[in-house]
Amino acid sequence: QTIYLADYTPFGYVIDDVALTFTLDPHHTRVKSRIAFRPNPESTERRFFLHGEGLKLIGASIDGAPVTPELSDEGLTCEVPDAPFIWEAEVEIDPAGNTALEGLYMSNGMYCTQCEAEGFRKITYYPDRPDVMAVFSVTINGPHPVLLSNGNPVATQEHHAEWHDPWPKPSYLFALVAGDLIAHADSFTTRSGRDVALNLYVRPGDEHKCAFGMQALKASMRWDEHVYGREYDLDLFNIVAVDDFNMGAMENKGLNIFNSSAVLASPETATDANFERIEAIIAHEYFHNWTGNRITCRDWFQLCLKEGLTVYRDSQFTADMRSAPVKRISDVIDLRARQFAEDQGPLAHPVRPESFQEINNFYTATVYEKGAEVIGMLKRLVGDAAYYQALDLYFDRHDGDAATIEDWLKVFEDSTGRDLTQFKRWYSQAGTPRVKVTETWQDGSLTLHFAQHIPPSSATPDPQPQVIPVALGLVGPNGDEVLETRMLELTEAEQSFRFDDLGARPVASILRDFSAPVVLEHDLSDDERAHLLAHDSDPFNRWEQGRILARQSLLAMIRENADPDRAYLDGIHAVVSDESLDPAYRALMLGLPSQSDLATALHDAGDVPDPAAIHKVSEAMRDALAARFAEIAPRIYQACQIDAPYRPDADQAGRRSLGNAMLSLITRHHGPAKAQAQFDAADNMTQQLAALANLIRAEAGDAALAAFESQWQHDRLVMDKWFGLQVLEAKPDDAADVAEQLTRHADFNWKNPNRFRAVFGSLAAHHAGFHHVSGKGYRLLADWLIRLDPVNPQTTARMCAAFQTWARYDAARRNMIRAELDRILATPKLSRDTTEMLTRIRGT
Ligand code: ARG
Ligand code: ZN
Question: Which atom from ligand 1 is nearest to the alpha carbon of 249?
Fold first, then answer.
């Protein structure tokens, strides 16, 4: 059953007040609800329908008189008065039997909830839609020392807690937690002087992994005050870490719930990358308090209203806390890997989709990351000052609302006077725009001709030109900046811009800072690219030219059996040796396009990618880099070693990242001795894990893997790394077999999403292993998706995306994948989630 944006109608009733009482029991939890409804003056709909799934109705009444509602699989309907009334119901649910991790469920003995998007209907009968907002009071009875819900505590005794959340909210922001938990406590004073108690709740044993998350929370609170003028609005802010969680984290009002991997960290157990991700997710969920909670979404088609904006805000935060160029480059790498793949394949959909079957399938890179890029473009187009003015108006005008993308754009139109009709296509059209640039040079004038083209897709069969902000600079022959960055606005299918009085011909540096999420086709010569790589004042484009040179060289190695390109190796060598540059940036410069990116590039050029050949040239290029850096790598490695105590900040992390990039080159060229030494001496996970990866790659990892396992057996999050790394670093012929072996390990708890993803997310990420010509990668993943689907449809459906690029491979692989897709689809009682994903991927 498909749901359409165009069919939106408001709910027929308004809720004035909700009171819930939980009596917790693993298999027989009772939930009583008392809800004050009245007819919605803005609606003529008088059918009274409440969502409810998997609930055992014990009894219901209206204004105290028992009623017998009509029940279906999706909920209930009931005759109700044409006047305000009190609905009361009692249901029984089974949290311990809830393996889907949606609604109220149990994780290692604790109760917790995940309600977004439509999980609240598994807790009680309710209009489970985001445009129905209400004030909640919650009572919890249970034998646990810690009993939490949203808002402020009203009364607490042993085994009994009462909570009141004064801010009206939709049901998806409801949360409840109960368990034997320890609080890492702190406090924060807001700009206007409100004291807020902060707690990070963890299971006993994890207390030492809380300090960093708490610091990140306080930094986020301060940042949102300074940059967006947004203060926190309750006396209490709680975060809870949960081991079994389908996603990263959830912004429930005043009670954020986190996948433990997204909040717990200590130097010994978490890598620098983990610390950075945790900082960003803490910020993301905290920022939702304004962009998501105070202003929420009218319906789930508007998901990007809160997610795109909140991702944009958390990326600004990270850029401020760490290095802005490094953050931008990392985001672009990620965007191209995940969002571009989605936008250019069978799962393509607009940032604001117009239909869905299962909304959980639309928490995508397009809604989140392209959604954030759209905000970034808007800011580039109107300028910083106008952007923040518009945001002030947005918070003013829509506080307390369940809003739409139209509301959002209207705020910008009203505050800037700009017509955003065309800009709105970024929300309504799927597909990655391709922008082709050609140049003419005459008498000191450079003309840039732009042509934009959006490839038609089934989601957007007839795309129209979009507004594309293109940041441009011109770099002179001596490397000086002839024209400083300016924003060109493409609005037409074809458009030209002329720059006069230039003297000598400059090199155009186009799409600086990746000013729009497009594919740029700009035919520069290798010399011109090398010139930008050496001199561009824009760090993104410098990096980008290195990346393009690498890609071109790798493609020539595949197609023409060419040698690795000297100019590329020399250019990278020069940048990486430049000690005036940030080590983190130098480390990024050493990265190669991923094997999946190369497959895309080949496909785009009309070739059929061969995963084994792509793997082979990637290895050969790494060998060539190792040889080119043979002399300097040990020196840089040495210079990157840190004497001071471990800190997860950008400075130290950057040095470790460059040091570990050198370690890879050294291991390739000189063997595993240095990696073994680093493994033996490591006092932090960043160093230990990087050393281990190098040892496995050098086929010298068996002892280290065993030592690592016995050292970390007790730590789930570290063991996830142990599982994942073995698959990621396996030879292509072995990756599927290694994954299969690991599923037999006593600690392979496949019902835990983190552990499942450690093995199968890594297999899917191993391009040459997953796409092994034998088909064993496809088969293994399909076997396990079939097994997981009845247990956890949401995680199963997400994992199906591993198959989304299937159409670009050869006929043999395509046939094998199609057979696996059909095999999964033929499974009896396959979930709606997985069915929708696979039918979209497979096509007809
Ligand atoms: N709103 C959460 C976040 O972005 C994600 C929740 C996703 N939940 C889901 N069932 N898909 O911060
Ligand atoms: Zn979010």
Answer: 12
| Contact criterion met (CB below 8 Å) for 492 and 435 | no
- List all residues whose CB is within 6 A of at least one atom of ligand 1: 116-117, 247, 249-251, 284-285, 307, 360, 363
Query: What pLDDT digit, counting tens, does each position of 626-660 carry?
Result: 999 999 999 999 999 999 999 999 999 999 999 99
Tell the residue nearest (CA) to atom 5 of ligand 1: 250
The DSSP H or E segment spanning 727 is helix 716-728
Query: Is 528 in contact with 541 (CB distance < 8 Å)?
Result: no
The interface predicted TM-score (ipTM) is 0.98
Supply 185's token pair. 């406590």
- What is the model's pTM? 0.99
Helix (H) or strand (E) holding 314: helix 303-321
Sign of CA dihedral 231, 233, 234, 235: positive
Note whether 403 and 295 are within 8 A (CB).
yes
> Which tokens in the block code for residue 493?
């299918």
Please report the pLDDT score of residue 713 as a whole number: 98
The CA 293 to ligand 1 mean position distance, Å, reads 13
Ligand 1 mean position, distance from CA 662 (Å): 37
Q: Are 576 and 629 in contact (CB under 8 A)?
A: yes
What are the angstrom distances between the C-alpha of 572 and each of 253, 563, 567, 585, 634?
48, 16, 8, 12, 17
Best residue among 105, 171, 250 to mutate for probing ligand 1's pocket (most ligand atoms within 8 Å of CB) is: 250
Q: Which residue has the tokens 């604001």?
A: 352
Distance CA 245, CA 261 (A): 9
285 sits in which H/E element = helix 272-287
Catalytic residue among 88, 118, 285, 836: 285
CA dihedral over 2, 301, 101, 75, signed as positive or negative: negative
- Has 285 been annotated as catalytic? yes
Query: Residue 335 and residue 397: Cα distance in Å, rounded?
Result: 32
Q: Is 475 helix (H, G, I), strand (E, B) or coil?
A: strand
From 171, 246, 247, 831, give the residue whose CB has the most ligand 1 atoms within 8 Å, as the site to mutate.
Answer: 247
Q: What is the DSSP letter of 777?
A: H
How far does residue 303's CA lie from ligand 1's centre (Å)? 10
